[in-house]
Amino acid sequence: MNSNSAYADDANGNVQDDLRQQVSAIVLERVDVVTADTVAIFPYSGAEALDAEYCHKLGRLLAELLALVIRDGRIDPLGGFVQDLHRVVLERALSMERLFTFAYLTERTTLDELALSETIGATTEPWPLVAQLVRRASFDLLGAYAGRAQLEPGDAAIIDKLTTLHTRPMLDAVLAKEIERAGRFGSAFSLILFDVDRLSAINQHGYGVGDKVLERLGILIRQYFRHHDWVARYAEDSIAVLLNSTDADHASELAERVRATVEERLEFTDHRTERPVRVTLSAAVINVQAAAGDFIDPERLLADAEAAVGRAKEHGRNRVERVDGYSGVRRAANPQAPDTSV
Prior knowledge:
342 residues
């Protein structure tokens, strides 16, 4: 058996650990090139340009952290490396959206360099796994940073205090980058939107009842999704979940399980009658299989989800509306294979 076949046959065993070490070593070896290529683009990705010295410091730290996460397959949100990143971010009060942009560009330039490798590059058998390791490491790094940042007092832009889920601005930042990645690589993702039925009527049952329902709902929903799925409070009465590389049927099944569990377990007592009142959800699942080169508008995608929730409510509430596809996708003029060379 040749070495490349071994990667395919033992992708979850010792060979993958060896591959992690190899990828990480190459990233560290070429960290200066990765940093320079990223810095060349990043200062112009926002409304306000950042000085080159700061961008170089942030870019090098992100590249080194990416190599670390690739090697170990995990990162501690409370560890010193994430703390170092947080300190650098605070130096310029960098927004979460711009940090995510920098991290995404670092991922792209890292893959550019790895694609040139004769042993694990874009023309070799282990390349799909290499690209997967890099993308997952980038995702885990940002998730760890978000977990660290929520510990800061007054950091209301990241974590919703009532539900303990991510906030809408956080979701918007993540969604923009993840759908850009999906259009670049031709990958699948799902967006689920849960909306509490008749929340305004629930609030009439007593002071703070609606807040208690939302608090319990946040805890319950989070239990159904992976640590690297993004779960956020979307609006006053709704919660959104972004799932990457998830089968459409599985995403729809998860939405239905959440709906059924809420109906079964979540209730409150009417203070006027002392009778239990059931809480229900209407939900939408938007499943998108992007092709390489597709452009997906996040605002249009969210509008599709809101419209699907509206249909669920029109058909009696307490149900899941599934949509396979996205109404506003723009295909590339000359469709190409997924961009694995980045």
